[in-house]
Amino acid sequence: MIEWVEQFDHQLLLFINHAHAPWLDQIMWSISNKFVWFPLYLILFILVYLKYSWKHALIFTLLGFAAVGLADFTATFGIKEVVARYRPSHHPILGPQLHFYEFKPGEWYKGGQYGFVSGHATNSFVIAWMFILQLRHKFKYITPFLLIWAIVVCYSRMYLGVHYPSDIIGGTILGTAIAFLFHWMYRLITTRISKVANN
Prior knowledge:
By secondary structure, this protein is mainly alpha-helical. It has one domain (2-198): Vanadium-containing Chloroperoxidase, domain 1 (Up-down Bundle). The chain is 70% helix and 3% strand. The protein has a two-stranded antiparallel ribbon with strand order 1-2. Strand 1 and strand 2 (107-108) form a beta hairpin. The relative contact order is 0.17.
């Protein structure tokens, strides 16, 4: 069973990675760049501050940064180091079969040594769900928009050949769980503040 899952993992990655083109390489490289999305995060925070009181928005901001920090730390310095599963780009047999992005002449992007779980998947889904849970009652299309965004970011990591699908699934589950945990904390804190204010 484990061998079948691993084989499927490899074959799906090869299918995604081999469906490449020079123009798409650059797009996927840009999508995978976390700094590209800072304007999106800023817009989402502005929406929160426009729709909520400054107290609630401030609490959301603090918990949001804490959630992303925990997600990134857990994925990058926790699970990856414990599981120690090599990225496909560092796999002795699979690696040579993959297509990689040439970010400098003669230099190809292959990521760090370990890949499970995907930090990009973890972070994109914790960000997506934190804002979805906060804004879904205020903006009708925020849920599909942010879920599609997170999925595209995850796809870019497989396209670039630096993560298995299972790395992505693991990161998705971790990021989603952390987001729901911190949203529950947000609801708990803001409810208590409202009760104190009304007494």
